[in-house]
Amino acid sequence: MLGADPDERFDRFTRIARHLFDTPIALLKLTGSDRQWVKSRIRRGRNDSRPELAFCSEALLSDKVVIVPDTTRDERLRDHPLVVDLPEIRFYAGCPVRAPDGSPLGTLCVIDHEPREVGEEDADVLQDLVWMLEQELQSLSLATLDELTNLTNRRGFDAIAEHSIAVCRRISEPATLLYFDLDEFKAVNDALGHAAGDRVLRTFARHLRETFRDSDVVARVGGDEFCVLLTSATTEDVQRPLSLLAGRLQTREDEPLVSFSVGIAPYDPSIHATVHALVEEADQRMYRHKQANGGRDPHRGP
Question: 190-194 long-range contacts, Cβ below 8 Å, gap at least 24?
């Protein structure tokens, strides 16, 4: 969701915020581990394109609405370039937005070029609007999350990966898709039961999250099938994390022995018009890899 383009569902909240507070600017800012996004921006008036992100840091770490009636009288902000120069911010009100797991996700804020006073009731309105936004995020999370592994599901993967490869195509960056299938997974279910099989899937998902980068799209796309889309990565770049993943599988304790087959497909914009085409190629390569090794892959435990 963080990397995706602006979305009408989020524009709706910034429109409402700007209308309720009658401010020229309303922003929904989301943060990742090392990046920031303006997910939605509704503004009128002064033609200045810089996102007003710096003001949101305090609100992000707070548990309540942060209000600055006049930035020129605030020691923290009065010398800030966005106060001294365009867009000459004078009023700021921001409320933290929480992810479904309670972690800080971003801020919804309203900004004005003139100082203004707002009361407790206005702060409650912004808080209520954020609560509605968090319910929207909860619904979105449930629709795109695999409940068993807490990875992105197939629906979420298709949406995020489509955007990711579009960005790679636009800036001529490489991307590589890994398609995993667990070997002899059915035998685990048959011999030890579905509860044991679920533990295997959760363990493998955890190893995927720990092995690959935050920027990689990791998803469960089938019963025992997983995908990882690595941007700015070639087929040579994926060899190290694959070896690391295999090593992690060897060190697990009190879990059934599991190995994996993997198909590696480099993204080629002249061949892969869609994510589906890239996934299909990776899936076919995985199947050939599995057949060549009698259903067992070299990336395996002892």
Answer: 192/256
Is 48 among the residues known to form the active site? no
42 with 18: CB under 8 angstroms?
Answer: yes
Domains of the chain by range and CATH? Answer: 8-144 (3.30.450.40), 154-292 (3.30.70.270)
Q: Give the mean pLDDT per block of 10 residues along the chain (302 residues).
A: 55 83 86 54 53 61 84 86 86 88 84 89 88 81 84 88 85 93 84 86 93 90 94 93 89 68 95 94 93 59 32
Q: Helices 154-171 and 120-144 meet at what angle, rounded to 10? A: 100
Tokens 């921006």 — which residue? 41
Compute the distance between CA of residue 250 and CA of residue 244 in angstroms, rounded to an integer: 10
How many other C-beta atoms lie within 10 A of the C-beta of residue 237? 12
Q: Which candidate in 146, 216, 224, 283 is catalytic?
A: 224
